Structure prediction request, 255 residues.
Amino acid sequence: MNSINTKIEKLGLTMSETKIYLAVLVLGKTTISQIAKQTSINRRNIYDSLSTLIDKGLIFQIIGEKEGRYVAIEPSKLQELIQSKELALKNIMPDLEKAFNKNKTRDQAYIYKGIEGFKNYLEDVLQIGKDVYCVGAKGGWGYQVLGEFADWFETERINKKIKVYNLFDHEMRDTVIKNKPSYNKYSEFRFLPPELSTNSAIDIFGNRIVTFTGLSFEKFDDDVTLFVLTNQELADANRAWFQFMWDNSSDEIIL
Prediction:
């Protein structure tokens, strides 16, 4: 049930709202007392959360009984909740994009940190929609700590036909050999010599250059840091340097 709680919270419900919704769902027609016993949440907080759940259309109150009773709406309502948020975002997106582009400068530099920062970078890859060139790659896109997000990203990348060229660290050779059947026409790889292995990497896509610190073989630190630079001229220069390294790197795989 804990994994269900976590996933429902990601839909925009608070922890208390999630626990109460699931309790009402399981108990059926129920009372404040029964909800309190099921969730160990104090009655005042239950009243507050029930009010917001009613406003969201996930729970309704039965009127006319001696003690107020509550019933959960069928779970498909959660999908409608997400769809309504997506529609609201779609309606305001043109205004948001207009405001962003109005103030956007030609060159930008900023920092992403941690796992959520890493996800932001992956979303940038999808948004830019250009091929990605990775120096010092360590398989970060498939790190287990990213969970389902990694699978979603890879599906979206292939749907958008974004190709990745990985210059892997030497230590990645065995892992790549093991996973070689999973590679597709949107992934190519070669290997850097052992003396060039580091805890850093550089990715180039579109007009972006992303420099990483805190990376290591098949994992990254919780405080992994990504330095992002937006500059078309520098991105083009880095791609030219990448091509030289690519042409002079090993692509031999012994199976």
User: Anything to note?
Assistant: The first strand starts at residue 59 and ends at 62.
